[in-house]
Task: structure prediction
Amino acid sequence: MKTSIFDLFKIGIGPSSSHTVGPMRAARQFTTRLRMAGLLSRTSRVKAELFGSLALTGIGHATDKALLLGLSGEAPELIEPSAIESIIANIRSEGRMPLGNERLIRFVEDRDLLFHNDSVLPGHPNGMRFTAYDAGGAVLLEDVYYSVGGGFIVREGDTSAATTPALPVPYPFASGAELLAQANQHGLAIWQIVLANECTLQKENFVRARLSQIWSVMNECIDRGLRTEGILPGGLNVRRRAPRILAKIQARPVRDPLEAMDWVNAFAMAVNEENAAGGRVVTAPTNGAAGLVPAVGRYYLQFVPGASQEGLL
Result:
């Protein structure tokens, strides 16, 4: 096993796993590499370049903001969404970047954040290049990263992921058919197989606690989306719909036999709109699909008789 459930369900921010979360993680990793190489204290300038789809649609997906946050040392799973705009505004107004949250360097956005709309790097359509310079203009470190989807990033030339052997697990499978075969052979539910395999990476109490944290973020995202009204960012004047759907459901004088499906739609819409607004969501397994698992989980807890936290797991 190489992929953990926690690789698939990652706490982050909207609006895009590939165009926001991935670039933010790449920028932060670049500053970490500078620090580990003893180069952070010598860095006077960092240039970030975007290629392909990141360059063409980056502004609409807040890729520029994600890079500034990542270079400042912020992580998608830890940053408070309400603080993002003030952090970005400070960088832009002062023309300075707190690189890795340690070293203040000059940052000129027109010079240091470039969108190459007509170029694509060979490894993937979502390409980024970071270059660090010393005070004399000499290159200290240059890295190319690719945001390959779901918040996953790959650094060009890094072969560690390809060479790392898969961990042996009690119920190996590499396809849906093999998963079902394991379930039938051992008389286990899918969730039991996945949990047993996951416990080869982490202790079970950690797995359960982490999943509980992930559900908490999902649940809070639903609640925020249901109560937050207004226009979504992006310039298209799209009004949030989830609060209006909720109001219509609650205003019905007679219970509709399909009401549960209306609730599911409201739950999913609430998360999708929080994602579009740059809020905290769980990439599950992408930001574009972030509303589905929370909606199903909330439906289960709210409408299925005998629902429990163990059942949610």
